[in-house]
Amino acid sequence: MTDARDISEDMQALLDAAVDAVILIDHQGRMLVANRSAERLFGYTAQQLVGRNVSLLMPETHRSEHDSYIARYIATREERVIGRGREVLAVRRDGTLFPAQLSVGVVRGADPPRFAGFVRDLTEERARDAEMRLTQERLAQVARFASMGELAGGIAHELNQPLAAIATYAQACDRLLAGPAPQLPPVQDALKQIADQALRAGEIIRRLRHLVSDRTTEQRREDLNAVVREAAELASRDVRQHGVQLLLELAPGPLHAVVDRVQIQQVLLNLLRNAMEALGGLSAERHTIVLGTMSTGGGLVEVIVRDQGPGVRDEVAVHLFEPFFTTKAEGTGLGLAISRTIARAHRGALGFRPAVPHGAEFYLRLPLEDSPT
């Protein structure tokens, strides 16, 4: 017959085999049992933990709250945290803080109640996440420079227009002031035009600097319709050079979402460039691209780029978003892969579907700001 001591030893052996830290506490928050993983994670021996309040393992700012959580459960039996994993900050014996995944369960049949806490160290996982974000940002930076290289001719033209206008108005001012009777009203009008054109040139440079700047992700509340309009402006010269008509079909707005404006525009510029290339060699009546927004319901919005090109073959479609997959002779195969990564970083999705009656439609699906998703 198995005695209580054997059961206790078997239970301790089972707990010690667990990879996660396991701590059993009583209704007053005192630790009753700690496994070997808990010893390694927090830097205490089990003997040093048993009998002490579990708030010892929490940052000072959270310690005062812990006992109230237990008291609330005992009084109401309402399981607010119990049975639900959550991320918390924990503290080791040497005082260092670390992110941890905490799950708490009630030991059924115990009266007064006892609780089992399972703690998993997230330090390495968070470090991997940070490294992945850094890698994604570096890849996005490379893609932005590639985009700007292809748009360079159009941007140079856009800058030349206000600069040429400034030179023309300045020469006009010189002529008007050089005569025996200077004509001040026309000069004032010309100076105003110079100021307006200088602001226009400055705005073009500002957009260019934002697009290629070495920057960290900065998501904020934006009107997606405004983001789309600005992307269309950035691509306008390239669109004209390709002999393409770009149609904006925007849903009634504003459509607010929490996004990184530059990254979303990078995705749209990549999709627009792909669409323009797909129209090469086709008749002029099919040289139309639609850039639009539409609410899909369920707190989601789609930004779409639709062309009237030859479409995408089924055997190609299944590989579209794979890194380094390309059908272009000089393509890198990174554009769509990076674009999908950006979409996922915004809790969204990037996808493809055939357009009707022909062509391709790419969609960037994003949650609206007030969406519960």
What is the fold's blueprint, element by element?
Elements: H1 4-16, E1 21-25, E2 31-34, H2 36-42, H3 46-49, H4 60-76, E3 86-91, E4 97-107, E5 114-121, H5 123-178, H6 184-212, E6 220-223, H7 224-241, E7 245-249, E8 256-259, H8 261-278, E9 288-297, E10 300-307, H9 314-317, H10 335-345, E11 349-354, E12 360-367
Parallel strand pairs: 7-9
Antiparallel strand pairs: 1-2, 1-5, 3-4, 4-5, 6-8, 9-10, 10-12, 11-12
Could you list the spans in which at least 5 consecutive residues all have pLDDT below 50?
1-7
The pLDDT mean sits at 81
Q: How much of the sequence is in beta strands?
A: 15-25%
Task: Give the second-level CATH assignment, the architecture of the largest domain.
Answer: 2-Layer Sandwich
Alpha-carbon distance between the two ends: 55 Å
CA radius of gyration is 31 Å
CATH superfamily of the largest domain: Histidine kinase-like ATPase, C-terminal domain
Number of separate structural domains: 3
Continuous helix count: 10
Given helix and strand content, the structural type is alpha+beta
Mind summarizing the main beta sheet? Answer: 5 strands, antiparallel
- Give the overall form: elongated
Tell me the strand order in the biggest sheet.
Answer: 2-1-5-4-3
CATH topology description of the largest domain: Heat Shock Protein 90
In total, the number of strands is 12
CATH class of the largest domain: Alpha Beta
